[in-house]
Amino acid sequence: MDSSRNGSDPPLLELKHISKSFPGVRALDDVSLTLYPGDIHALPGENGAVKNTMVKIITAVYKADSGEYLIEGSPASITRPREAFTRGIAVVHQERSLVPTFSVGENVLLDRVVGKAAQLVDKAQIERDERRNMDRVGLSVRPPRNVASLSATQKQLIEIAGALSSDARLLLLDEPTGSISITNTQGRLRSSHRLPDRGVSLHCLAHQLDEVFESCDYVTVLRDGRNS
Predict the structure, then answer these.
(1) Residue 10 and residue 79 in one domain
(2) Which of 158, 202, 208 is nearest to 181 (CA)?
(3) Four-residue CA torsion sign, 206, 211, 213, 218
């Protein structure tokens, strides 16, 4: 699964000596993180400022006070979340962001639907395209079905499929199993394991250590905002 570490491919994303402070708080202090294509990488720990700040640095919501940000070995000047998105970095938040009145297919390919008149939406093409991304995460749901009737596991997989529809290469999963039962958690993790085989790097922010050790290839531990 992790052949890129033994080959010539550079890391997909590198953060080197990143620091970030807020008034009265030093959230990150000289933190480094390296993510390779095909890795399942975990950042365990309790919910709080450190993990949230890391995600926001990676996705350009926040700008680091110091340090280097590299994509595929080259310094990257990314100043807006949309730029990170177009460079293949997507995040699936713990809170659902699906449109409940839309179908499964429309939610998977949301960028093609929002802001367009109904007569301009090619629903047949949407169904063909989103089926490919649903298959990648092991989700078997009819595309025309309304998302409001789906389980928490299915909704989360729809969000992951939606991120993949943008050709994301780095997928940040914010507490990916927090609201799902243990049985469904194991099924979701097995489905996600199909993604690294296609060169997609998964970066999981989780506080349940048993899930981290069961499902992840590498772990980065931060303590008091520093590499531990």
Answers:
(1) yes
(2) 208
(3) negative
Separation CA 222–CA 51 (nearest Å): 9
Nearest of 75, 88, 70, 73 to residue 8 by alpha carbon: 73
Rg (CA), the chain: 18
Q: Determine the distance from the C-alpha atom of residue 40 to the mean position of all C-alpha atoms in its chain, rounded to a whole number.
A: 11
Residues 201, 136 within the same domain:
no
Q: What is the pLDDT of residues 153-211, one digit of tens each?
A: 788 788 888 777 777 889 888 766 555 544 455 555 555 666 776 678 877 776 666 66
Query: How far is Cα 60 from Cα 196, in angstroms, rounded to an integer?
Result: 24
Range of the domain at 103: 97-168
111 and 163 co-located in one domain = yes
Q: What is the CATH number of the domain that holds 23?
A: 3.40.50.300
pLDDT in tens, 85-109: 889 898 887 656 777 777 777 777 7
Q: Count Cα atoms within 13 angstroms, Cβ side, for 163.
A: 28
pTM of this structure: 0.76
